[in-house]
Write a structure and sequence with these properties.
single chain; mainly alpha; about 85% helix; Type II secretion system protein GspF domain-containing protein; transmembrane helix; transmembrane
Amino acid sequence: MRLWVAGRSASVRARRMLMPREGAGRWRESVGVGLRLVRRRPELGCVVGGVLLALLGDSWLPLVVGAGAVPLVGRRLAVRRRARERERRGEAVIALCGAVVGGLRAGKQPNEALLATAAGVEVAAAARFGGDVPGALRRAAGAPGAEGLRGVAACWQAAAEGGAGLAEGLDRVAVALRAEQRSRAELAAELAGPRSTAGLLAGLPLVGLLIGGAIGAEPLRVLLHTPVGLGCLVLGGLLEWGGMAWTGRIVRGAR
């Protein structure tokens, strides 16, 4: 009962600080704008969290930390976006091989079969107007994740110069790319456990803050307004950063 009463009183105080009665409509509008910004740029959630902690803890320190974390989180999210783009390009190369092979076996000419796929603008132009298709494929292979197009270009050039079977060559390229994709997926599945464990351990301090606030220990006041609390906060932040960096290094080494 004491825990429930203490938790409810803390939530009431926070609500009074964050949403005064006379500005409830304006507050709701501001929250809506903030949520839209966070959906568009998720790294801005660090600033939102910093503002909430600054209001609850009556200190400007969480706001400064949240603002400083924006570029770091933004870079991390950009790395994930680039990784997803690489995966999509790799899948597109495999789909291109399959589509060209299907067109060739249906009786189409190589350039005609290539035009029926979702090839890039430069590759499609070379196929349409009789240009250098292998060269266009090699240039398109420079995009991250599209490296498999070098194999497609080699098969195309071998078929054009020596009469080798293009469909058989592209089949082999697709098989090799699928095997590589399966290897990456298996590695990602094996690394998912350590990553989730590291994330869970990184979130435990927040659980401790919630429990401390529920029992009325006022952890934010201790951490933000006392020398011992500030020292613990700095030391804990450094240890947290070191643990995440170490975990990231292990994952990169495994890759």
